[in-house]
């Protein structure tokens, strides 16, 4: 998976891939997480709904930066990603420098959860 390779080359650790909302609490609660990278169009829940679910959790989980990952143009999703509680936006196909910039902006020296 491309994002995991980029994370590994930048000294970051990709912990897990969450495929559904039901997996969220079992993976996210016991881990120390710096960032959530979520696809906006997930099969069982939208990334926007996923983001709102995380924001309703107790701190420090609710404070984790969430980055939208989508092939939709920014004009098409407008402010929806911000209104859902996401902190930033990445457009697919991912470019290494864009991903590195987001990692630098939002991550301290913790692990990454990739959705």
From TrEMBL:
The Response regulatory domain covers which part of the protein? 1-107
Provide the leader sequence positions.
Answer: none
One Pfam short name: Response_reg
Q: Which superkingdom, per the lineage?
A: Eukaryota
Q: Gene3D superfamilies of this UniProt entry?
A: 3.40.50.2300
Give the GO terms filed under biological process for this record.
phosphorelay signal transduction system
Keywords of the record, alphabetical order, are:
Phosphoprotein, Two-component regulatory system
Q: Which InterPro entries match?
A: CheY-like_superfamily (IPR011006), Sig_transdc_resp-reg_receiver (IPR001789)
Output this protein's name. Answer: 9229_t:CDS:1
Report the source organism: Cetraspora pellucida
